[in-house]
Write a structure and sequence with these properties.
single chain; 5 helices; mainly alpha; 126 residues
Length: 126
């Protein structure tokens, strides 16, 4: 149990530091902010490759705690979303994959909108 927590903490610290480094640069391409896009792509790639390697090589599942949950979880939540959607596609569940995309993206946008609206309401701002 202590080793599990240590894996999570080490992975989370490293993922947080990398995310901070990349997103702190505020990279832009033709007025499109791409810092978060970069961490999402990196996280998805790392999660996909590490989970496959861990499974295929029969490695200790704690590597999933270190890399998948700790590192990628701190680096981005998009990696898990992309990984799950790809899993649905691999299973031939195209409609569910599309629904997963729409629900995840839509719910995230709605949550941002709702959070902003509540704070603006509480602060009396318009």
């Amino acid at each position: 149990m202590k080793y599990d927590i240590a894996c999570l903490v080490v992975g989370a610290i490293l993922g947080t530091l990398l995310r901070y480094r990349i997103t702190g640069e505020h990279l832009v391409f033709n007025n499109l902010p791409i810092s978060v896009l970069i961490v999402n792509i990196i996280g998805s790639f790392i999660l996909g490759s590490s989970s496959t390697a861990i499974t295929r090589l029969g490695l200790d599942p704690r590597y999933t705690l270190l890399i998948g949950i700790g590192f990628c979880g701190a680096l981005t939540t998009m990696s898990s979303f992309a990984f799950e959607t790809m899993g649905l596609i691999d299973l031939g569940e195209i409609l569910l994959a599309v629904l997963n995309i729409l629900c995840n993206v839509g719910a995230s946008i709605l949550a941002v909108f709702a959070g902003r609206a509540i704070i603006l309401f509480l602060l009396g701002a318009s």
